[in-house]
Design goal:
heterodimer, A: alpha+beta, TIM Barrel, beta-galactosidase, domain 2, 7-stranded antiparallel sheet, 14 helices, about 15% helix, B: Immunoglobulin-like, 5-stranded antiparallel sheet
Chain lengths: ~800, ~120
């Protein structure tokens, strides 16, 4: 266990102050439950750190750890201590967000299912938006805090602690939130406590230490943010807005848009990434800084996978979120834009700036702000162009949808930047020498004054340096024994330039903190530090990519539950309501079986979300009841007429299989909204005794084959070679997959739901084979819940399975220095 | 289902702005929540009188927009801080004292949004 050295975290209106030093908090959100295991967390944290983030934001998901009242599992991949240790060892601060409600598009917003089953519990002390205090709910909160806070308290790198999440009620009664605050303090939380206001309305600002809020300008995938020039209005006014609620704390955007989640009826992450582009995060982050924000958290910075039953009903398996670090751990263009801003902040701080000066330009859709920087004794000019064409000002040109931080009156060792619209990427500095890494731009210039000797040969008072430069072009000045060097890199090279531990490494795909680099192709690497200057190293190796065509599938019918002779006498008998909370079955798949008499004329039922009805082993209905219209979930109740051809025995066997895609995430709906079989009646009215069971038979270890053709398991095996010097991500590709519904298991772990929505679209065709669950020899099971007319026996499936492949992307690790 | 709680939505209505006009009623709105779009006006109800979209106009930033013209395909932007007047024609339905107002409109992100408001009115 790490020793806890008491770290003092205080704040004033400008910034957080950690051990007496001002720190600009650059944080990225990460879900350990969607990126399971310490090894994957370690990989993602290294990438976060390499991108210049100094903090990781972590939601703690009570539902993930607690499957029964009083039971909390923090072992194996659920060991959050190992996650926190990884963050600490890599040198990241932590923002701890243990809810108890977290939203995060997780099942039931992170509240345990057993809690929702208790009818006396009012989740979050509210029904709809009405406040109802529930002692039983508070007992759970107490129990959860007793578990999670002692773990958090073992780590001295925790800099802020959040209570609840995006909470509001009609009367804004403070009782619950005040109690949460007290509970955290009583359990030893010493760092600042905040809440995350989803509405930028100052909610709970007086109750917490630091007011924080969400900012998501792009939440409608059909919206073109580039045409909505006012979509950043909230951000453009955030300083004045927050200051009207809280004067004495830093401005904190606890969730600043780093991407967005896609839904079952969405547009797919590929299109969403294209819509957001890399400009969005650049504009968001620079605008926030221009507004005096000194704490931000890119939500999400790291994508994840809603494996098992993690997802709420809104989202499919991938929670890529268009993050900088995608679901597979790969770096995306928005990662590089965030990296450049983080490096700039690392170099200059900006955590103590003066009054904002709004600058007006004649052209519309131009946002411009100047801030005085007291630490660097200069000013920064922030300019954004939301027009379709370039903006020409007297001293600079700004491309469409670009935003720049321009430098004014920055005194350097051997010269002064009077003005520069060539952006600063990073600065290395010691007492004598400094190097400014500048992003080359043929339309931009650096205006220098008070310059010293240029390359020891000439001297001048004022000079203009064009930003039209090639990679590694550099200019050096010397004055009074000190030097200032400008070194230019193109935007393309900037993406692959890394600043770590006072070293700058060029042209690497990724750089680890211990001098190792990751490369995907033969490359020449340059690296630089102030003592040794430039060095170069050439890495040559055989490039490698792999596609594994999966062909040898074994096929079995795998739903013995539907068979008429199936013995379900050991299943639980349901009494009363049949929904999943009432019967205590919370998994995705829930089975209902009952005997029904032959005189019934009709069955009427409503189930969430997909279901099938079988009578005497034959399917009589298969339905997808997951429907949204105009953003409202459509509830449907369906009647099935029965006759003697269906009810052909005196006692007939009814089997219903319901797929629950997840409970409500609880943001605007209620987490305990029923799932499973939510309505059931028969005509004429008769008492039907149901027996219930959850999960597929293979998940329960019931390996019997079945005679019915409605659920078929396709199994295959594949090998993975693990090597110390190779990092990889693998995914299963189901492009052109011929079926509508499938559930994918890797070594027995459910890793994906393939589902065509009601528009007959499949938004996810690539499923991450999460490294944590991979072994040298692997089994892949795909259960198809569908009966095509041409499927008479399991073997018929094989003719349809033509495009199931595993693709691998890998990078080799090399020691650079 | 709205993604913004009702008590916050109510802040969009400018209290005390309810007025009788020559052939109806008007009141003012100000967006204090955040930038967004209105993709449809379903109706406005004042006490017992219902004003369907063909009787509703939105006067904002110097232009008068018939509610009927607002749709999913033709949404109108409503900026943070932007003000506007909702003009309802066809019935003089205000009572002295408290009047109950319901506005139902559509938003691309939240779907159907229903605002329950009340305002005081005193005839001159």
């Amino acid at each position: 266990m790490l020793q806890n050295r008491l770290m003092q975290v205080t704040f004033d209106k400008n910034s957080l102050i950690i051990d007496g030093k001002r720190v600009f908090i650059t944080s990225g959100a990460f879900h350990y439950f969607r990126t399971p295991g310490a090894e994957l967390a370690n990989d993602r944290f290294m990438k976060l750190k390499a991108a210049g983030y100094n903090t990781v934001d972590i939601y703690f998901n009570a539902n993930y750890h607690s499957k029964a009242q009083g039971e909390y599992d923090f072992s194996g991949i659920k060991d959050v201590r190992k996650i926190l240790e990884a963050a600490k060892e890599i040198g990241l601060y932590v923002i701890a967000r243990p809810g108890p409600f977290i939203n995060a598009e997780v099942n039931a917003g992170g509240l345990p299912f057993w809690l929702l089953k208790n009818k006396n519990v009012i989740p979050r002390n509210k029904i709809g938006s009405e406040y109802h205090y529930s002692q039983e709910y508070m007992e759970f909160v107490s129990e959860w805090y007793d578990q999670i806070i002692p773990i958090i308290n073992n780590f001295d790198n925790v800099i802020a602690f959040q209570i609840e999440n995006e909470y509001a009620t009609d009367d804004m009664d403070e009782g619950y939130m005040h109690e949460l605050y007290q509970m955290a303090r009583e359990r030893g939380i010493t760092c600042p406590i905040f809440h995350n206001d989803a509405y930028n309305a100052g909610l709970w600002a007086d109750l917490v230490d630091i007011y924080a809020c969400d900012v998501y300008p792009y939440i409608n995938p059909n919206q073109n943010w580039k045409q909505d020039h006012f979509c950043f209005d909230t951000l453009d006014n955030i300083e004045d807005n927050v200051r009207s609620f809280k004067e004495d704390a830093p401005i904190f955007i606890a969730e600043m848009q780093g991407g967005w989640f896609d839904k079952w009826d969405g547009i797919g992450y590929k299109k969403m990434r294209k819509a957001l582009g890399d400009e969005h995060i650049n504009i968001m982050t620079k605008t926030a800084i221009s507004q005096g924000v000194s704490m931000f958290n890119h939500y999400m910075a790291i994508g994840g996978t809603s494996w098992d039953d993690l997802a709420c009903d809104e989202v499919y398996t991938s929670y890529d979120f268009c993050s900088g670090i995608d679901e597979f751990g790969n770096l995306q263009p928005n990662f590089y834009r965030a990296k450049a801003i983080n490096y700039f902040l690392q170099s200059f701080g900006l955590e103590n700036t003066g009054e904002r000066e709004n600058i007006e330009f004649k052209q519309e859709n131009i946002y411009a702000v100047r801030r005085k920087d007291y630490e660097n004794d200069c000013s920064w000019l922030f300019v954004r162009n939301m027009n379709q064409s370039a903006f020409h000002a007297s001293k600079f040109i700004l491309q469409p949808f670009d935003m720049k931080i321009m430098t004014e009156n920055l005194q350097l060792n051997a010269c002064k930047i009077e003005f520069s619209d060539v952006e600063i990427f990073a600065r290395l500095k010691n007492e004598k020498d400094e190097v400014l890494f500048m992003i080359a731009d043929e339309n931009a210039n650096i205006y220098l004054e008070d310059i010293g000797l240029e390359n020891s040969t000439s001297e001048g008072k004022k000079i203009v340096i064009s930003g039209a430069k090639n990679d590694y072009d550099n200019i050096k000045y010397e004055k009074d024994g000190k030097t200032t060097q400008f070194l230019f890199i193109s935007p393309k090279l900037a993406d692959k330039t890394w600043v770590l531990n006072n070293k700058v490494i060029f042209n690497a795909d990724f750089v680890y903190s211990n001098g190792r680099i990751a490369l995907s192709k033969t490359t020449e690497i340059a690296y630089f530090d102030l003592v040794n200057g430039f060095s170069k190293k050439y890495f040559k190796f055989q490039e490698h990519s792999e596609t594994l065509d999966l062909k040898n599938f074994e096929m079995t019918f795998c739903a013995p539950e539907i068979d008429t002779y199936y013995d379900y006498s050991n299943w639980e008998r349901a009494s009363g309501a049949l929904d999943s909370l009432s019967v205590g079955k919370y998994s995705e798949f829930i089975w209902y079986k009952a005997k029904i008499p032959n005189f019934l004329e009709e069955i009427t039922l409503s189930a969430r979300h997909l279901f099938a009805v079988y009578i005497n082993g034959k399917e009589v209905l298969n339905r997808n009841s997951y429907k949204y219209e105009k953003l409202q979930q459509i509830e449907e109740t369906i009647s099935i007429p029965l006759d003697k051809t269906i009810l052909n025995k005196a006692q007939n066997e009814l089997t219903i299989l319901v797929q629950n895609l997840g409970f409500d995430k609880g943001f605007s709906g209620d987490t305990n909204h029923p799932r499973g079989l939510v309505e059931f009646s028969v005509k004429p009215n008769s008492k039907i005794d149901f027996y219930v069971q959850e999960k597929f038979s293979i998940e329960r270890g019931d390996f019997r084959e079945s005679e019915n053709p409605y659920l078929t398991k396709l199994s295959t095996t594949f090998n993975v070679e693990f090597k110390d010097n190779i990092v990889f991500s693998k995914y299963l590709s189901l492009e052109n997959f011929p079926y509508d519904r499938a559930t994918i298991f890797l070594n027995g772990v459910k890793i994906g739901r393939y589902l065509k929505n009601n528009k007959n679209q499949t938004l996810q065709e690539k499923f991450y084979l999460i490294n944590t669950f991979l072994k040298p020899q692997n089994t892949l099971d795909i259960i198809i819940w569908e009966k095509e007319s041409n499927i008479k026996q399991p073997w018929d499936f094989k003719f349809e399975m033509k495009h199931v492949i595993i693709q691998v992307g890998d990078e080799r690790i090399h020691q650079l220095y | 289902m709205s993604i913004i709680p009702e008590f916050l939505m109510k802040r969009v209505y400018k209290k005390g702005s309810l007025k009788q006009t020559e052939d109806g009623v008007c009141f003012d709105l100000k967006n204090v929540l955040g930038p967004g779009f209105i993709s449809g006006f379903s109706f406005v109800k004042i006490n017992d009188a219902i004003f369907e979209a063909d009787k509703v106009k939105f006067l904002t930033q110097g232009s008068e927009i018939p509610a009927e013209a607002v749709s999913e395909e033709n949404p109108i932007g409503f900026r943070l801080g932007q003000e506007g007047t909702l003009i309802l024609q066809g019935a003089k339905c205000l009572r002295d004292g408290i009047n109950q107002i319901i506005i139902e409109l559509m938003n691309p992100e939240a779907g159907k949004v229903k605002l329950f408001l009340s305002d005081n009115f005193q005839a001159a």
